[in-house]
Design brief:
Layout lengths: L17 H13 L1 E5 L4 E5 L6 H23 L6 H13 L2 H5 L1 H29 L5 H28 L3 H7 L2 H19 L3 H4 L11 H13 L4 H6 L2 H10 L9 H23 L9 H6 L4 H13 L5 H15 L10 H17 L6 H17 L9 H13 L5 H11 L10 H7 L16 H6 L64
GO molecular function, one term: Arp2/3 complex binding
Pfam families: SPIN90_LRD
Protein name: SPIN90/Ldb17 leucine-rich domain-containing protein
């Protein structure tokens, strides 16, 4: 492979080999032209250190080199262009100069990313105006080169993260989240602007194909491991979120890894908006753009089918929590609480029963409590409230959770409240059940609960997206996720806990010590 010659796009053979490319790459990274006053000649040396200006030149030159030859040399790699990008990115991040100037290099990459994406969008706006008449070939070449350069930067950032996840701190400090969001948004808009111009549409690939998956993975990791500021979340373009929703297919993780990556990114962004809403003062709260995009048009049906398919199969503790939090939002939102079909709700009940019967009361306390927090509004507000599907099984598992010696006090409290729901009452047991769970106030009886979110809102229930984990008011969300709050009159389980620090399925409850907000998980 190292001695093979690459074939140029026009069919002509290039004399550049893989070894020849690596020689050029190493020269860019490590060589410096220096004027020797003693001989009056320019010589090439390998300096011990590198200044910021020199590092800037190295970064730009190296990206240009990789971008120019990516398809040419990538065709000689067994794994194709992706294998080439992986090797090229690895060579750069292993460079001692890069490591010594890591913060500067990440900032430079983000700056280049933003500039390139904005330039492409500006070019597209010009094409939209005059169709680029007379310059079609040059414009297509520019757009193609532009995309390849963005792809090169994406590989460098992603491989850098996998090799050293401490760069996450640098990404957070220098607006990595919003820069990556804006980059993908630019290409989303670019694709839209050029879709009716066939002479250009093939020059811009879908920004969410596999070549751009590194940016999606980075966004997911940033959201999973840090708290995004309200300012950054507010700056996310709804176009980006809508494109993600519209591009989802109904498939599992194993069937389509890229699709699952988009799915879990939407899940974690929804959580970021929920946490932002809860942790902000009422006047500073921002709408949940992820949830609002989800319920727009046909997006909900597409997303909910994807969620149902994966919810029944997913074993990852974190992903389960994220999916449950979306369900919580759906069942506590006035306009969406009855959007799930009855058959889908029955599937959810079956899954909930299976999980609650299988999970360990000690090791999986946090996940069990999250299920209980979602079951409550599901049985109160969805069409299940008038059904008796698996009532006996639900009552049985709730009684077990409420009485088992190993159950935590929070689990007993949450399961006891579920037992007070009208949907789990039997006609001849009203007084008996209320006496059995005397720790729950009789004023909280399921017989007194509102029949719908609208009724609950009119009765003065708390109208917010996410409540304090210690606040037991029912959460009823408005369409904008920005409702006002009034004094609660009834008590209900708090919303699902933030899933930060949740580990594998076998994680101990001690691993879930503190929620993102700083309050201890009950």
């Amino acid at each position: 492979m190292s001695t093979a010659s690459a074939e140029m796009p026009d069919g002509e053979e290039s004399h550049l080999t893989v070894d020849g490319f690596w020689d050029m790459a190493n020269e860019v990274l490590y060589s410096k032209v220096y004027f020797d006053p003693n001989t009056g000649e320019y010589v090439t040396i390998r300096p011990d250190s590198c200044s910021s200006d020199e590092m800037n030149m190295i970064i730009v030159s190296y990206i240009s080199l990789c971008t120019t030859h990516s398809e040419e040399i990538g065709s000689l790699f067994e794994g194709g262009v992706d294998s080439f990008h992986y090797s090229a990115a690895k060579l750069l991040i292993d460079c001692s100069y890069y490591q010594e100037n890591l913060g500067f290099c990440i900032r430079k990459l983000l700056s280049l990313l933003n500039y390139i994406a904005q330039s492409a969008l500006t070019l597209a706006e010009g094409i939209e105006y005059d169709k680029g008449v007379g310059h079609e070939i040059e414009i297509k070449e520019t757009l193609n080169m532009n995309q390849r350069m963005v792809r090169t930067i994406g590989w460098i950032l992603y491989i850098n993260y996998t090799a050293n996840n401490s760069i996450m701190t640098v990404l957070e400090e220098f607006q990595g989240f919003i820069t990556i969001c804006e980059t993908l948004t630019c290409y989303c808009k670019l694709k839209e602007k050029l879709k009716d111009l066939p002479e250009y549409s093939d020059a811009i690939k879908n920004p969410y194909y596999s070549t751009y998956s590194n940016f999606l993975e980075l966004l997911y990791e940033i959201c999973k491991n840090s708290t995004i500021s309200s300012e950054d979340l507010a700056a996310v373009d709804i176009c980006f979120l809508e494109f993600l929703f519209k591009s989802l297919t109904i498939s599992t993780r194993d069937e389509d890894e890229l699709n699952f990556l988009k799915f879990k990114l939407l899940l974690v962004m929804n959580e970021q908006y929920m946490v932002s809403f809860y942790s902000s003062e009422e006047a500073e709260r921002i709408p949940n753009k992820a949830f609002n995009a989800m319920i727009e048009g046909t997006n909900f049906r597409n997303f909910s089918e994807c969620l149902m398919l994966n919810f029944n199969r997913e074993k990852d503790h974190i992903i389960q929590i994220l999916m449950l939090k979306v369900l919580y939002m759906v069942f506590t939102t006035s306009s969406t609480c009855q959007w799930f079909y009855l058959n889908d709700l029955k599937v959810l009940v079956d899954i909930f029963l299976r999980e609650l019967n299988d999970l360990s009361l000690v090791e999986d306390e946090a996940l069990i409590n999250t299920y209980l927090r979602v079951i409550y509004p599901m049985l109160m507000f969805s069409v299940l409230k008038s059904e008796s599907y698996k009532k006996e099984s639900l009552v049985e598992v709730m009684r077990y959770l409420n009485s088992a010696e190993e159950s935590a006090e929070s689990t007993k409290r949450l399961s006891g409240r579920c037992l007070e729901l009208r949907a789990l009452k039997f006609a001849d047991e009203g007084d008996l059940l209320r006496k059995s769970f005397s720790s729950v106030s009789s004023s909280n009886s399921g017989m007194d609960m509102p029949d719908s979110p609208q009724v609950a809102a009119s009765m003065g229930y708390h109208n917010a997206t996410m409540l304090n984990d210690r606040d037991d008011a029912i959460s009823i969300t408005s369409n904008s996720s920005n409702g006002s709050s009034t004094k609660p009159r009834k008590r209900a389980p708090p919303p699902p806990l933030p899933r930060k620090m949740l580990g594998s399925r076998n994680s101990s409850s001690s691993d879930v010590a503190l929620a993102r907000t700083g309050r201890r998980v009950d």
